[in-house]
Amino acid sequence: MGNKQEEKIRNFPPKKIKKLAKRFKRLDRDKNNVLTIDEFFAIPEFNENPLKYQILKLFDPDSEDPDLIQVDFTKFIQTITTMVLGTEEEKLHFLFRILDLDGDGFIDQNELFELLYSIIGDQVSSEVLHEICQNMIKEFDLARNDVISFEEFQILMKNEKISKQIQIHV
Ligand SMILES: [Ca+2]
Ligand SMILES: [Ca+2]
Ligand SMILES: [Ca+2]
């Protein structure tokens, strides 16, 4: 990241940065200059996002536990600039990291299940959901190792129906 990130932030319109700084201040309710989980969850749209815990991980990749995240303004703005100004591939990487819950670099059936469950919820039985996951993995697991790699994920996301379902809104 490093320089590339900084360059991106420089390219971010100063007006927008000012706006983000304002937003950061507003979100930082206890004025300690870091955002914590309760401050993020105070944003209603964010709180409703089924992927909120995974999204929090992106803001503070160093912290293992989303409950303990500490997001200072630099991290805040870096994450948002990547989400907004990142290339298609960077954005997909972001999403992949959200879905790869254990961070092993692959999406397995359980992680896919978690994702679909967070989107579909109780509308279908867990048996049906497991079956859907199995079929999805079968369809996109080109290397036949029962997990989805980033390369396979890129192909999966070209499928419009799926990508529409898992867009991130922050
Ligand atoms: Ca705070
Ligand atoms: Ca994984
Ligand atoms: Ca695979």
From TrEMBL:
InterPro entries: EF-hand-dom_pair (IPR011992), EF_Hand_1_Ca_BS (IPR018247), EF_hand_dom (IPR002048)
GO molecular function: calcium ion binding
Family annotation (SUPFAM superfamilies): EF-hand
Transmembrane feature ranges: none
Occurrences of domain EF-hand (ranges): 15-50, 87-122, 128-163
Record keywords, A-Z: Calcium, Metal-binding, Repeat
One Pfam family it belongs to: EF-hand_7
Domain of life per record: Eukaryota
Protein name (database record): Protein phosphatase 3 regulatory subunit b alpha isoform type 1
Organism: Anaeramoeba ignava
